[in-house]
Amino acid sequence: MGFYEEMIRRIAADADPAACVEEIRIYANWVLVKTGKWSISTYFHGMPGFTDPAGMGTWMGDWIGRPARAAALELLVSREILKRSVGMACLKSLLPDPPATIAGGAIELVEPAACRIPTCFIGYFKTAAAWREKGYPVTIVELFPRPGDIHWNEADEVLEKAELVLMTGLTVVNETLEAVIRRTPSARMRIIMGPTVPASPVLFDYGIDMLGITQIDDVELMSNYALLGGGSIANAPAGALRSLNMARDLRALQERISALAR
């Protein structure tokens, strides 16, 4: 069993075993799934090594009513982007709420450190680009780079030197997390964040120090935003989503962030 398969199965071990898939909502940029509760995942497109279904191949209605944990595990090994996106939203909806969190966005918590130590964002974040423009020692690594970004295949040097590493939850579903860990040997802290991140402490066993997770507070607000093509959680309607942060030890995490900023 490979890195990805083992990690997903370990995460799924904490999933509600009795829940069934109740609803699936698919939009241009998001997937929402309800088992016992609603959850969200990015509907990612164009990833190397995956296929985008077309036409009738997008039908997901046959998954309604199926045992949710088994469905999530089956969907998450598919090479079809839609199935994997639905699978992650399904798995996330099955996980228990974390017992303790810090409210707010993960990025804002680490700004005092990012302004002084080599920081690498894996995946595009608007805040990261703004920090780079302000002169922070920030680089952005992307599979689809914008001006100023560095392509994933050409990023060995910046990844090797990065002391603070922040990445999107897509590194889990597109199977690049293992490579991120291997390619960031100097990292003093690694953070994975965004709407695709499962609220699972299992990720702390795989080189991650903090999870920036997203919970749905008002599914209809989020659905209406997604229905109209909304593509960034930063622009989601107030009250639709909530950003929280997890760590093995939240007090120790805050102390480590303070130490990085000194």
TrEMBL record:
InterPro entries registered for this protein in UniProt: DUF364, DUF4213
Signal peptide: none
Any single Pfam family the record assigns to this protein: DUF4213
Cross-referenced SUPFAM superfamilies: Dhaf3308-like (SSF159713)
Top-level lineage group: Bacteria
Protein name: Hypothetical cytosolic protein
Domain named Putative heavy-metal chelation: residues: 107-241
Location of the DUF4213 domain: 11-95
